[in-house]
């Protein structure tokens, strides 16, 4: 799905079209806009779900940090170039005003940290466990952070999130090819916190009128700087191999640039609590690829867990349209 083109004059029109004034004068989202936003977040999550499987195809000498750096630099520079081409330097400066620069710094740092921590978790404790923990813990963390920006946590959201987390737990029941290492678990938990942090920072910048393309372009473009510094001295000769080039292009374009453009557009009308719960489609996709593409064992627990995640995602998506999420904007 191609990102919708916007101009400086139409950005606010799109935002206004997805909102309406309630009887108390507050502005709330129109349900159809919420459904569209949830769908965009879902498609993004499915594309993210290919990340772990793609990493398996990279040359064996590629380190976790090296893969994270290659992915972020490729996708981040594409997003930055897209933002500059569509909004120009004046538009990009919106992330560095007195009221937004702190959120921008937090977002940039969190994006860089997530990439390094996620790939380290996957390398340490496996694709399945690393992805399940990193993404599975994010809804709870983001939901709590969402309270800080006055977003409501509804009972329906809690039910849907509980169903998806239960499904994730079933995916990790012994009997399949699941590997658990403490170091990997800690990396994954830290990755979940980083993911939740930049999700909330992005949502707050959107609520302050910053264009979505500017947000992702700034977050991911400037996040290249710290991660390149971290990977200094790493061996990148694997990038000369055909599978190294192919994996880097897919991770940068198909699993970063495209899904994050969809994600930030969907986040405009989707509460961060719902967005991260919908993001649990990522480990679902990762598990499906493991079973049907990589030939991993599918146990009854695995299939039941996948069904529970699908059901939970449906409930969370419904919550985002019926419960008045995201929080009202003044």
TrEMBL record:
Biased composition (Polar residues): 7-18
Transmembrane segments: 38-58, 64-85, 101-121, 127-149, 156-179, 185-202, 214-233, 239-263, 275-295, 301-320
Pfam family, one: EamA
Keyword Endoplasmic reticulum: no
Membrane topology: Multi-pass membrane protein
Cellular localization per UniProt: Membrane
Domain EamA per the UniProt entry, residue ranges: 37-172, 183-316
GO cellular component, one term: membrane
Chain spans, region Disordered: 1-26
Keyword annotations of the record: Membrane, Transmembrane, Transmembrane helix
The keyword Electron transport appears for this protein: no
Similarity annotation: Belongs to the EamA transporter family.
Protein name: EamA domain-containing protein
Organism: Micromonospora wenchangensis
């Amino acid at each position: 799905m191609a990102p919708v083109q916007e101009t400086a004059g139409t950005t606010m029109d799109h935002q206004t079209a997805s909102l309406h004034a309630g009887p108390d004068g507050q502005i709330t989202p129109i349900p159809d806009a919420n459904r569209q936003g949830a769908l965009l977040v879902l498609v993004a999550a499915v594309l993210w779900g290919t990340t772990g499987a793609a990493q398996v195809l990279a040359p064996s000498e590629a380190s976790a940090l090296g893969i994270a750096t290659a992915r972020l630099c490729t996708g981040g520079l594409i997003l930055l170039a897209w933002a500059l081409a569509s909004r120009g330097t004046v538009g990009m400066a919106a992330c560095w005003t007195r009221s937004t620069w702190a959120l921008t710094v937090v977002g940039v740092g969190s994006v860089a940290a997530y990439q390094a921590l996620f790939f380290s978790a996957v390398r340490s404790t496996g694709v399945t466990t690393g992805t399940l923990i990193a993404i599975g813990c994010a809804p709870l963390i983001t939901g709590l952070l969402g309270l800080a920006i006055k977003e409501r946590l509804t009972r329906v959201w809690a039910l849907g999130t509980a169903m998806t987390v239960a499904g994730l737990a079933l995916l990790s029941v012994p009997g399949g090819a699941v590997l658990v290492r403490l170091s990997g678990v800690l990396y994954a938990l830290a990755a979940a916190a980083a993911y939740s942090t930049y999700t909330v920072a992005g949502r707050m910048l959107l609520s302050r009128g910053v264009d979505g393309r500017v947000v992702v372009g700034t977050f991911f473009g400037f996040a290249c700087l710290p991660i390149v510094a971290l990977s200094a001295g790493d061996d990148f000769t694997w990038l000369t191999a055909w599978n190294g080039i192919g994996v880097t292009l897919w991770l940068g374009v198909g699993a970063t640039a495209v899904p994050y453009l969809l994600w930030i557009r969907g986040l405009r009308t989707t509460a961060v609590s719902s967005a991260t719960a919908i993001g649990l489609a990522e480990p679902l996709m990762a598990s499906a690829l493991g079973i049907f593409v990589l030939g991993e064992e599918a146990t009854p627990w695995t299939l039941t867990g996948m069904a529970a995640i699908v059901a939970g995602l449906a409930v969370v998506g419904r919550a985002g349209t019926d419960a008045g999420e995201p929080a009202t904007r003044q």
